[in-house]
Amino acid sequence: MNLLEGKKVAETIKEELKLKVDKIKNTSHRTPHLKAVLVGNNGASLTYVNNKITACKKVGIRSTLTQFESDITENSLLEEIKKINEDNDIDGYIVQLPLPKHIDEQKVINEISPQKDVDGFHPSNFGKMALGMPTFIPATPLGIIELLDRYKIDTSSKQCVVLGRSHIVGRPISILMSQKGKNSTVTVAHSKTTNLQELTKQADIIISALGIPEFIKDDMVKEGVVVIDVGITRVTDKTKLKGYSLKGDVDFEAVSKKASYITPVPGGVGPMTIVMLLYNTIRAWELNQKSNA
């Protein structure tokens, strides 16, 4: 078993991006700027946004956070997004999900300028990704592809099972894995799939984004499988100081004994997600420079 050490790879990519930003500093009047928009005081969301801000500082990217109360109206939030779209000093931005229930998330995503949509969630960017055109690719799927590439894992002609069909991870990674370059034969499984164990036992590659702790057991996988565990769930654990442990979708202890490669949780996909957001931000800066030249 080999660990797919996303944390280690992410640090390497950060160093590469820092060199790029240092070069930008020497040739431009300003560095790339990433803004995060946070609505409410969700603890997990705030931690995630702070991790992004910390990563930006390490690379040299300017980062700012705008936080609104959870009772902000949908129209007020949309007005704020329009202002960000028109601000040429901001290259890319994210609206941290989930949003409060009274706000239509898709309506908010649709309002984000595709040129600043470093999360890659806007329908126009998603469509371009599906067509294999240059665009912003969602950070988690992009991080998974980069991790597979860095470890030189052969995906061509392999059977790949994706668990989960969200627009953030499951659906985009299924598209990317089937495209030229990866050339996998992809099956997307979900809550209505009836023969799940039969599918996973045939898979050469399993990418799980279910959010169900330790759902995948060793009797669901074959010897030599490559496992990408996107899930991360807080599970009550009184032996821990924080009162919880972080668990992935995969029973790591059991499945790792059969896997050829597997991501740990934490320290696998999560760090790759953050670093690919930085990568997208630098690309957004480059697009901004061209459009304002």
Would you write up a description of this structure?
The protein has 293 residues and is an alpha/beta fold. The chain has two domains: 28-114, Rossmann fold, CATH 3.40.50; 139-270, NAD(P)-binding Rossmann-like Domain (Rossmann fold, 3-Layer(aba) Sandwich). 42% of the residues lie in helices and 16% in strands. The protein has ten helices and eleven strands. The strands form three sheets. The chain has a six-stranded parallel beta sheet, with helices on both faces. Helix 7 (170-178) links the parallel strand 5 (159-163) and strand 6 (185-189). Helix 2 crosses helix 10 and helix 6 (139-150) crosses helix 7 (170-178). The longest helix has 23 residues, at 269-291. The chain is globular. It starts with a strand and ends with a helix.
Can you tell me the number of structural domains? 2
Q: Largest sheet, order of strands side by side?
A: 1-11-8-7-5-6
The whole-angstrom Rg is: 19 Å
Secondary-structure class: alpha/beta
Topology, number of strands: 11
Estimated helix fraction: 40-55%
Give the overall silhouette.
Answer: globular
Largest sheet data = 6 strands, parallel
- Measured between the Cα atoms of the first and last residue, the distance is 50 Å
Please, what is the average pLDDT? 95
CATH architecture descriptor name of the largest domain: 3-Layer(aba) Sandwich
> What is the third-level CATH name, the topology of the largest domain?
Rossmann fold
Percentage of residues in strands = 15-25%
Supply the CATH superfamily name of the largest domain. NAD(P)-binding Rossmann-like Domain
Q: Would you list the SSEs in sequence order as H and E? A: EHEHEHEHHHEHEHEEEEHEH
Low-pLDDT segments: none
Number of discrete helical segments: 10
The CATH class of the largest domain is Alpha Beta
